[in-house]
């Protein structure tokens, strides 16, 4: 019984950063922009969050640092792809290369200097019973990720601003001719995606490993991008997908910790599993016929009004 | 004063080739400023990274050795990107090429003969191509995005190295280090200039670039890659199958990345070690863009990126610049290049006065 | 009463083009005012400035007698200007209700908006389900959304940009009824078109533009179609020259029970199409956009390969299993509707574009290598023979105007001397001079013994050009009829999906 509780708690913790980053990317893609730089923005957010926690010890301030750093990084992408209509795929890759280099440079002075992990949001007394631990045992970003799933769904489906954002992603020229600012809406979406990726990145030192390590997000940003496709741009499916990955990563942790039937399989295979699972998941979703029918029609195309 | 972008009637060929040069120059200027602002010797960093490798004749052989894999992979990627096939898993295909070559080298350990090295190279090429065949299969059969699959396979391939050199391929005399044994003489790439580290891979890289240039500019194959990338619908109308093109693009880019991998493991490394993945596959993406997806351009861009690698190492020892600075300089080059792309299709016009405002 | 809209000296310049040159005219309240001109005459630019999408470089716009600056579409809607776009500004994945909500500047609760939409729909007889996704609607239904969206704002001026180009003749009549009702209520209508008989039937005044300038303002009811056409084009109309006493040869292209699979969710597939085209015959296929024309062209050209080798034959030789390259070798060439990106590659030079379709028929490839000299020579010949305005074979296709690019594409195929040529929308968006040249080239090719299939939404073009006519509706082709023996009403009913002659006649009398 306890082992299952422990697995669930670890799983939720591991899934939350991916979920947060993927929710951001989902909004960006709904606006018709494909930002492949999630991994880079997460790394910049991770080092900013780490530094924030290191200097102030206030994890909320650290998360805020992550959000700002992620948004600032996304602004580079926004300027190149929206203002200068550069190729979105190439710019996203460049952003990841940049984020990797920047975080490594900025993080070099912090190596081997541990920080304090973020504490659970609710008092520990609430989480004494194992079942209650499943509900009350997490730090704030986990609850934030839940709230954001609902918030993103509500925004896209129920609000006028969400309708406009979807319209811009669906048919940019029409949105322009009715009189909406395509570039403005897309900038807002890209900045939101950057902030979410930054928060997601900051979760790595704050929730998972309280030390600075180069490339500590280890491809999770790319998995977040893949999850958006898997979820066919629907927030609640994103939740399910992120937890599936949380489970895979939790199994990896348990296998590495040794013992039990999991350790029969080489640890390298466990480490490779999240990436292989991503491929499997993408294959499964593409076998379903309507998978791409929910994709924003303008995804990845630069907006070029004729005048 | 206002500026306005105005579409050119024809894309500017001058800008097409001037912007890569400008982006490198701009990176030097902006890089010097930024690194000075964050407390490093900015001008020194630019000098060490961009100029020392050129002025110091000792470093030239390093340049050749670093440029060779970048050019070989970059040529393959430039062909794939021309076809709008986004293989970004060249690093993984490079690793698989290296592993396939290693497998041959270990299987023939202790043997001699001139057939061993060609067999290794063949294995490397096939290994890289096969690994790229996975995204090709998934893309053509199930329309799975090749960016994500090729990248995920890269992460997986790194784990494969770790597993192989930890367990089945581990050097029995290695005192527990996770690495293979040193290849025997026949499985090592010979140097072409005695007394230097310049191995056979360097002239191969030049040959690959020249051959690719000829094929891409003159042959129906090159035309097919370009037309599918520029207008897939028109390509189908012209009788070119998109799926076949995706296969060809991924196989060719994978094979070349695999070639670079086997040359690297048989040349500089001469054994498989955990540090074999050196990001050449990712840097080659920058090389392909900086070379304007033209194999001859890639040759020059590969040398430029090799300069930053060698220079980055120099700057690390001489002025204590962290190694990560190289990555930032490389990303900056790509940012400026992408920003400059707009000048190929648009010109900037200064809007002096607004006649509408005057009339109203 | 002050004039509803008064334009004075409106000028708009684009790089290399003077789109509007000192244009002055006015629209009275309740007037249906035609804005007439060829493609590229500057009509769209002019109305974009009235609707605030663009700003004039010089000139003045007055609204109800007051000078105004229309800074944005929002400002235009605030004044009371509504617009129905030629290429609908609709969002396919969204519902009718969501689409209309996007066009409203005020935030209206969904339920209230739906009630108002239903009210407007029943008032004007524009029936639609507000909760349907746009992608599932026909073109005519989509236009109704645009009209309802505009009407909800109680416009004082409604701009209609080429509204009938996608409608069946019957739908056009319904639209005219709505517009006349509106005008009677005092709403002015600015009606953009190049269809002269419609303008004669509907409009009170016509303003004619040519090359960005105003040529004339006239009463269309006092003019003949021909006189207005000549003002629009600026010179005497050129008629198609046909050799007298033409006779058709043996059946050349025979298509039997040709079908395609649905590619996308909202795609219309070809459903068991059969037709026979004789040597020397021009066979026209009419139909409203989105009824399977694209799939039919792809299935004929070889972009979609059939399962049945005998589905398509030329002179009895089966081509069904061949791809475009294979079919070209046997003399079947095709020109799709979309010029840039389908029939030609915008970023490539004209010379490279010739390699796209002419490389095998004209021997431009030797041992896998392209003979660029041969491509250049051939391209030069196309440019010269078809009077393509281009700097030379090295110009990129994207730098050519629509009409010139179309002339190049038609020339590239016709000079390969195909025995069968299939073309879709050969003169869509092309100026009258180029259209006449293209029509003549098609007639000449037929006269030389080729079989030609023309797929077009322009009924006037088909009636002028073709010997035989059939109608495509939902992927199915009606029976073929000689052009002289078929009435416009009959074709209109077929376009609307009423099949069978007796049925059609009943519907007409009813």
Parts with pLDDT < 50 across at least 5 consecutive residues of chain B: 353-360
Spatial extent as radius of gyration of chain A: 19 Å
Query: What percent of residues of chain B adopt helix (DSSP H or I)?
Result: over 70%
Enter the CATH topology name of chain A. ABC transporter involved in vitamin B12 uptake, BtuC
Main interface by residue count: A-B, 43 and 41 residues
- What's the shape of chain A? globular
The assembly state of the depicted protein chains is: heterotrimer
**Whole-number tally of structural domains of chain A:** 1
Average predicted confidence as pLDDT of chain B:
91
What's the CATH first level of chain A?
Mainly Alpha
β-strand number of chain B: 2
CATH architecture label of chain A: Orthogonal Bundle
Overall average residue pLDDT of chain A:
89
Give the strand line-up of the largest sheet of chain B.
Answer: 1-2
SSE arrangement of chain A, N to C: HHHHHHHHHHHH
Please provide a brief summary of the model.
The complex is a heterotrimer of chains A (307), B (360) and C (510). With 307 residues, chain A is an all-alpha fold.
Write the layout of secondary structure elements.
The complex is a heterotrimer of chains A (307), B (360) and C (510).
Chain A: H1 2-30, H2 38-56, H3 59-83, H4 88-107, H5 130-136, H6 140-158, H7 160-170, H8 172-178, H9 182-208, H10 220-230, H11 235-257, H12 267-287
Helix pairs in contact in A: 1-5, 1-6, 1-9, 1-10, 1-11, 2-3, 2-4, 2-9, 2-10, 3-4, 3-9, 6-7, 6-11, 7-8, 10-11, 10-12, 11-12
Chain B: E1 2-7, H1 13-37, H2 42-55, H3 60-82, H4 90-107, H5 116-142, H6 146-166, H7 201-218, H8 220-230, H9 232-237, H10 242-269, H11 280-290, H12 295-318, H13 324-340, H14 342-345, E2 346-351, H15 355-359
Helix pairs in contact in B: 1-2, 1-13, 2-12, 3-7, 3-8, 3-10, 3-11, 3-12, 4-5, 4-6, 4-10, 4-11, 5-6, 5-10, 7-8, 7-12, 11-12, 11-13, 12-13
Chain C: E1 5-14, E2 17-27, E3 32-36, H1 43-50, E4 58-63, E5 66-68, H2 73-79, E6 81-84, H3 96-103, H4 110-124, H5 139-151, E7 157-161, H6 169-184, E8 188-193, H7 196-202, E9 205-210, E10 213-218, H8 225-233, E11 251-258, E12 273-278, E13 282-286, H9 293-301, E14 312-314, E15 317-318, H10 324-329, E16 332-335, H11 350-358, E17 365-366, E18 369-370, H12 372-385, H13 402-414, E19 420-424, H14 432-447, E20 451-455, H15 459-465, E21 468-473, E22 476-477, E23 481-482, H16 488-495, H17 501-509
Helix pairs in contact in C: 3-5, 11-12, 12-13, 13-14, 16-17
